[in-house]
Amino acid sequence: xxxxxxxxxxxxxxxxxxxxxxxxxxxxxxxxxxxxxxxxxxxxxxxxxxxxxxxxxxxxxxxxxxxxxxxxxxxxxxxxxxxxxxxxxxxxxxxxxxxxxxxxxxxxxxxxxxxxxxxxxxxxxxxxxxxxxxxxxxxxxxxxxxxxxx
Length: 150
Fold this sequence. Notes:
Order of helices and strands: HHHHH
Structural class: mainly alpha
Distance between the termini: 30 Å
Shape: elongated
Number of strands: 0
Helix content: over 70%
């Protein structure tokens, strides 16, 4: 996930770079985001999606193993399941960001679009990195304990 997280970081830096420029109209909320999306959104979306494609099979495999673990009734499995769900959540956050960034033709003045844009812009790559480290640690601890029990 390091490549998708890095791509998210750079996209957000690119958006901030549009703040206060003559390109960003002042009469639209999130104007720097709108200008970024119109000028660089499609390429940014493609780049992030390409990064996510390498991770997608891993997420799918993880989800299938989570389901299999539920069936087997492994001791303390909820810790592993929660960690995997949070790892998937991180993936989904980046995917949501890239999806909105790639939509240059939205009605930017519509309240629902602005609300969605606010939510997407609140996605913090630093928090995602922190979450990934924490959940990977929880998963490894679970795996260690499971192997010790075996």
